[in-house]
Structure formats: structure tokens, C-alpha cells
Amino acid sequence: MSGNDRLSDSRGNIAAGLPHYQAASSRREFLAGAGVGFGGVALSALLAGDGLQAATESVNPLAPLPSHRPGRAKSVIFLFMDGGPSHLDTFDPKPMVNIHAGKPLPDSIERVITPMGVTENPVLASPRKWRQYGESGLPVSDWYPHVGQHADDLCVLRACRADGLNHVGSVCQMNTGSILAGRPSLGAWVTYGLGSENQNLPGFVVLLDNPKEPPGGARVWGTGFMPATWQGTRFRTGSEPILHLKSPESISQARQEGKLSLINELNRRHLASRPGDTELEARIASYELAWRMQAHAPEAVDLSQETETTREMYGLDQKETASFGRNCLLARRLVERGVRFIQLYSGSGSRWDAHSNIEGNHSKYCRETDLPIAGLLTDLKQRGLLDETLVIWGGEFGRTPMSEKGNGRDHNPYGFSMWLAGGGVKGGQVIGATDDFGMHAIDGQAHVHDLHATILAALGMDHVRLIFEHQGRPERPTVNEGAIVEQVFG
Length: 490
Hints:
Alkaline Phosphatase, subunit A, two-stranded antiparallel ribbon
């Protein structure tokens, strides 16, 4: 292996799964370590000060790393509609649904298992009006008119598939590749493989639009069996998006700096006699990042620096769009500052889950997200950032054509839509298809593993070569499966 293969690089000790304990040393080894260890730390600091050695070279697991191959995207913004948006009513028009409204699905359409069992409910009509946008003529419903203006930048995957029936397993799979908890999230894999371009901010940031977490909680942006170094950092809304970062007013800047400097010195002395202790290295790196964030994070999240025109572009001047718009604008600011992976949740806590009154539910959440998403795409393009930023829209699954509770739709992991834009993606195209009722993916199927492989490919990462060895087994982000959807890139 070569390049950025994770079994042979500078983080090989982590990838190799070495035991997290220190073997007993002899008196001679102790004296030798005491005699030269501290001097080595001092020499490293002096060299770093002279620019001859990176200050965090041996202890910073978030240091930037080369990709496996050239990639167009440098960052990812994942717009996650928590609860499962209806593809039939947004990006995959199905006239047959209205023709057969009130009737059972035709016998030619395979019956499926939903959370309510094998459903025999009648087909539910969609009152959406559709329009073809841009030179590509890509159809988008009246629930997303502002996003439709960017049709020529969108690549719609209409034949996505997943394995879970409920929210906990499905949200887990869309984030980690598996319906079972315990695996690293996609954002963690990205920061593990590429590090972070900004050493003063987290490499992986999560933004929620309300206090409630998605199903599975923080595990869906966690690191599973990896060290916690690469997990997502959740930013809160309000004046203090990162908890416990701001020092008390009674603590001066000089005093705080002195305290952290002493802690860091003691940790490095401890590390000098324990080479290869990756857990300790990660802890030191987290302290150092926290100190740097105290100086840099407040500026990064200060939206008052934006012009009124920009704030209006994201809908910050409107009550309905202000919350999600604020997160979209913050995502753009983080991308500008080199944050690698940003995930925005809309309706966090499965609020897109429209088992009843889908008209009221989706009208609300589409209205909350339409203008901010369009503003994000416009702003990224105006600033020359869209080409190097991969934007993804979707949820954990889609919805059924059959009714649920009279005027809602049930979960559908068998065929649903997601779209990608920027980051080397060829826009203005539709890939794959579902059947006439939007129940099953029938052409150009893209499983969650394929989607993850494609996202990694946009970043220049090979999902087969990106490896973390756990308990003697080489683990990959796509669970040893998946294929790149090459048509995405033209």
C-alpha cells in the first residue's frame, strides 16, 4: 500500500489497532527516557518555532493528508431532512399516482413491508404542480420553487435504496452505512482520511435546527470503534454555539493561556515516555484545538459580519426560514474556513415523518428549507466555492404512494430520491428511475453504500483503500460494499 492507505501512513498505529497500554520498562530504559525525552520535546518545540518541523506533526490526528487521487470537492455540506421526505412530491413526479388515487396498487407493483406491516392501503393522490426548470428541463414540484432555479446544478438520484424500515436504523445507515449502531459516521471517515484544512476549528461540524436530536442521538455523528478524535462537533444555536468554550469573565486571557500551556507541557512530558500512545496524543490534540477555537471560533460563527443582502438571501429576515437559513449561512462560513464536513439537520427528531397530514407537514418543512438551500447554492457559486463544495440533499428514506392514516404516507426505503450539486458533479441530470408509482427503484439503483462511495470519490477518496483495522478486521466506510455512481461526474 502507498499514498494515503490507512494501514501504512503516519496514523498506522491507530489503524493497526495496537493495544492501548504501556509495557513495563526496565530501570535502564527509564533512565534513558528521562535523560533524553524532555530534551526531545524541547527540541521539537524549537524546531517548530523555526518552521523546521510542524508543531503538531506527531500528535495532531487532524493534520491535513493527501487524498488517494485528485478530487474536485474539498468540503461536504449534507442537508439532512430528518424523518424521510416524500420523493413523489418533490423531485420524482408520478402521474399514475393521481390516476389510481383511492384504489389499491396494481398487482404489477410488488407489495412491501412497512412499519405497519404489508400495507393494502389505497394510493394517495399528490396535489403538487410540477415545472421543468433550466436548460435541462429538470422537473421540481411547487414545494421547492427556489431550489428549482438551480436545476442545472442538480444531479437527482431517483433510484436510491436503503435497508431499514424504521427511523433509528435508517438514520443510522444513511450516516454510518449500517442499520446497526457502532460504526463510524461518514463525516468521521472523511476527517479520518483527509484531516482538516483549518487547525483552529473542528473538521466535522453538526448543525441542528431545534434542540431535539435525530434518532440515535449523537452516535449518528460519532466515530464508533474509532478514537473519538474524528467525531462531529455539534454547534448549538444562539450566542454560544460551542458549549464550554468561553472562559468565565473572571479568568483573564493571560491566565487561561498560562493554564492551558502548563497542562499541555505536563501532557507532553507524560507522552515523551510513552511513544505510540494514541489516546494520549488525541487528548493533547483536543486540548490544543480547544485553545485555538477560543480565539477563532467566535469570529467564524459571527453572522453579524454578513451584509443585509446576504442575510436576506438565506431568509434570515423571515421567521419561517430564519433557523435553517442561519445554519446554511453558517455552513458557508465554515466551508470558507476549511471545515471538511458539515451536516445540517432540518426537522431534527424525525419531524419530516408524515404518517398523517403530509400536506401540512411537508408544506411547513419545504417552506422552511427551500429559500435557505437556494441561498446557499447561490452564495457558494457567487464566491467560487460551489465547484469545490459537494452539497447533498435527502433523508433516510422516501415515502410510499399508498396512504397512511388517510392523508399521510408511510416509510419507503425501496426507492427514493436524493440530489447532489457542486464538487465536480454534473448538474441538470436525473440518474435512475422508480416504477410508475415510485415504490421500487427499477433502474440505476444506488444503495446507501454506493452513495457514500460516490461522496468519497468526489473528495478524491477510494472507499476500498480507506481502511481502519478493528480487532484484526479491515473496516471500510462502505462496509466492504458499494460502487461509485460514475454518471454523477459526467
